[in-house]
Amino acid sequence: MLAFLRRLFAPKPGGTRDTGAVAEAAAAQWLERERGFRIAARNWRNPEDRREEIDLVARDREVLVFIEVKARARGALVPGYYTVNRRKKNVLRRAITAYLRRLGEKPRTFRLDVVEVVPAAGGHGPPEVLHFENIPLFPKHFRP
């Protein structure tokens, strides 16, 4: 199964960017165009622990939105939403906490969204984008 996934998401000959980067760019473009988000950061990494990464940080009006982007093959058995499991949420929680602690002015509200990007059928046309808002991550009264 792992070999199948590697082949599926392997860079195409002549391609310069990997699947994740392409999916993140498509997600950012879609969020700006369709939802009116303003992208504040891409691929932010915690300087204290480089393994902790936030794919996209955006503003949805007054809300600071942390976005996990998942590239999925058309017909994938497990949708991208479900791949953000407990382990991934723990990493995201640490990264988001580190990001929030570095801000001069703390946002009044923030949330986690998951964006799933699926290539167009036959590889022609724009990808399908699924947006899942306000994924539970922090306790109700969390303050960084």
Overall form: globular
- The CATH architecture assignment of the domain at 41-137 turns out to be 3-Layer(aba) Sandwich
Give the beta-strand count: 5
What is the H/E order? HHEEEHEE
Query: Which residues form runs of ≥5 with pLDDT under 50?
Result: 1-8
Outline the structure in words.
The structure is a single chain. This protein has 144 residues and is α+β, with helices and mostly antiparallel strands. It has a domain of 97 residues: 3-Layer(aba) Sandwich (Trna Endonuclease, Chain: A, domain 1). The chain is 28% helix and 31% strand. The chain is built from three helices and five strands, in the order H-H-E-E-E-H-E-E. A five-stranded mixed β-sheet has the order 1-2-3-4-5. A hairpin with a 2-residue loop joins strand 1 and strand 2. The N terminus is likely disordered.
